[in-house]
Design brief:
Number of helices: 19
Radius of gyration: 24 Å
Helix content: 40-55%
Number of strands: 16
CATH topology of the largest domain: Rossmann fold
CATH superfamily of the largest domain: NAD(P)-binding Rossmann-like Domain
CATH class of the largest domain: Alpha Beta
Largest sheet: 6 strands, parallel
Distance between the termini: 57 Å
Strand content: 5-15%
Shape: elongated
Bound molecules: nicotinamide-adenine-dinucleotide
Oligomer: single chain
């Protein structure tokens, strides 16, 4: 197997996992990040994010010397006398106010690469970007590459999910390679060869669209079942059974059919927006995506709506929020529905006692959580609460001692926005219970 010298620019949730896993399969990798705090932690062997399994891989490859860190792209391109043959761009592509993706970091990195290469280099876009970004990256490199050094741009979107990122990277459903030359295709196939994954080779634009279309499709599936849940609530049907019945159809499948509080995180909300924006920009008004977003916005208000039905006056009442991260097994708070819940409840005069196993430090940094009391565990959060709101489906919340929960609360009201509990069993225990789309 051919081993490559690889530079990964951006050492966040995607870049760090990509860098560590590429080193794990034998390549020599240097990860570059412009955040000095993050870099200091990484150089000291500390991982600044919560990602199951990443620690072991990280320690192994760092010990072997195959994973290093650098403060600048220039340093990363020529690290300890070795020249990067492949450069992955994995910087953030945060949304602007109009929903479009901010690609200034991608452009800045492309310019620096162009000015500092002196032999054939493959520049791989791993960040999620709108269609035609690859062409822009190529044009940028061409403009600043005064020496005329040969290069290729590849679109290689990442599909990992936070919480299972290492496994997703090492055992992907597919590796997408959007290429413009056979040379780049051959090299990229060699980079990924140890994974023995299904590889789909496409043109640049199709690869970029695969990523936006996939995430938007998954978001659509979530909004679809949430819309069905709303109808279930109106007629007294059970969305869990409806989803089960739908999911048994192999053409539909059971995944992403859990009704709840809507989707969040760094990918679905922003990718949906960016996909809508770029479609419109190109002359197609992708209305379906607009509805998906509207349903999601409505769904994020489920707790605030239900709590009023259950508690009548909200001023001065206390709600125990269990879970803050947008999903279990991550500390990522970006676009988490909990942010919306906290904002809405606080604006109605509710006192919040919150607990999350790993995301509280990040939540404390957000203005929406000012004044929120952070508890030391689930039971501490529940002391004297007028209602319990389940916001994130951490498995440990499912295992709560419900009799103890009831004793600790002022009034046993449960708003189960992730359908963790069985409604009949909860009522049997004496809870005033509401689940999403459940009778
Ligand atoms: N998080 C996910 O689950 C996920 C999954 C698939 C794809 N993506 C996509 O991958 C990209 C990165 O996402 P992320 O979650 O890793 O973001 P992140 O914010 O965790 O990481 C981005 C990193 O890039 C660094 N950075 C920014 N500009 C830089 C520059 N000019 N030079 C060096 N470093 C720079 C930042 O300091 C940060 O550490 C985004 O486009 C995202 O949509 C994310």
């Amino acid at each position: 197997m051919k081993k490559y010298d690889i530079c990964v620019v951006g050492a966040g949730y995607v870049g760090l996992v990509t860098g560590a896993c590429l080193a794990e399969i034998g390549h020599r990798v240097v990860c570059v990040d412009s955040d000095p705090k993050k870099l200091k932690a990484l150089k000291a062997g500390r991982i600044p994010i919560h990602e199951p399994g990443l620690g072991e891989v990280f320690r192994r490859v760092a010990r072997s010397g195959r994973l290093s860190f650098a403060a600048s792209v220039v340093e990363g391109l020529r690290f300890k006398g070795r020249r990067a043959e492949v450069v992955f761009i994995a910087v953030g592509t945060t949304p602007r106010h109009d929903g479009s993706a901010d690609l200034s970091a991608v452009e800045a990195v492309a310019e620096t690469i162009a000015k500092n290469i002196d032999s054939y280099t493959v520049v791989v876009d791993k960040s999620t970007v709108p269609v035609e970004t690859g062409e822009w990256v190529s044009r940028t490199i061409q403009r600043f590459n005064k020496s005329g050094t040969p290069y290729d741009v590849v679109s290689n979107p990442e599909f990992l999910s936070e919480g299972s990122a290492v496994r997703d990277f090492m055992q992907p459903d597919r590796v997408i390679l959007g290429v413009t030359s056979k040379r780049a295709e051959t090299l990229m196939r060699e980079v990924y060869a140890p994974l023995k994954a299904v590889v789909l080779v496409t043109d640049l634009k199709s690869a970029e669209l695969i990523k936006h279309a996939s995430n938007s499709f998954l978001a659509t599936k979530i909004s679809y079942i949430n819309a069905v849940a709303n109808l279930c609530e109106k007629v007294g049907a059970d969305v869990k059974l409806v989803a089960q019945g739908m999911g048994l159809d192999r053409r539909i499948g059971p995944m992403f059919l859990n009704a709840g509080l809507g989707f969040g995180g760094f990918c679905f909300p922003k990718d949906l927006e960016a996909f809508y924006w770029i479609s419109k920009q190109k002359g197609y008004d992708f209305q379906l995506l607009k509805s998906v977003k509207e349903i999601n916005e409505h769904q994020k208000g489920w707790i605030a709506r239900k709590i009023e039905e259950k508690l009548w006056n909200l001023e001065g009442k206390t709600v125990a929020m269990l879970g803050l991260a947008f999903k279990p097994d991550t500390d990522d708070m970006r676009f988490a529905p909990s942010v919306d819940v906290a904002h809405k409840l606080k604006s109605r005069g509710v006192n919040i006692r919150a607990f999350d196993p790993v995301a509280m430090e990040r939540a404390k940094e957000l203005p929406e959580f000012a004044g929120v009391k952070f508890a030391k565990d689930e039971y501490d959060a529940l002391k004297g609460a007028d209602a319990l709101a389940v916001v994130t489906e951490w498995p440990r919340f499912k295992a709560l001692d419900l009799k103890r929960v009831k004793r600790l609360m002022r009034t046993p009201v449960v708003l189960d926005a992730r359908n963790l509990f069985d409604p009949a069993a909860m009522r049997e225990l004496g809870f005033d219970y509401a689940g999403v789309g459940r009778p």
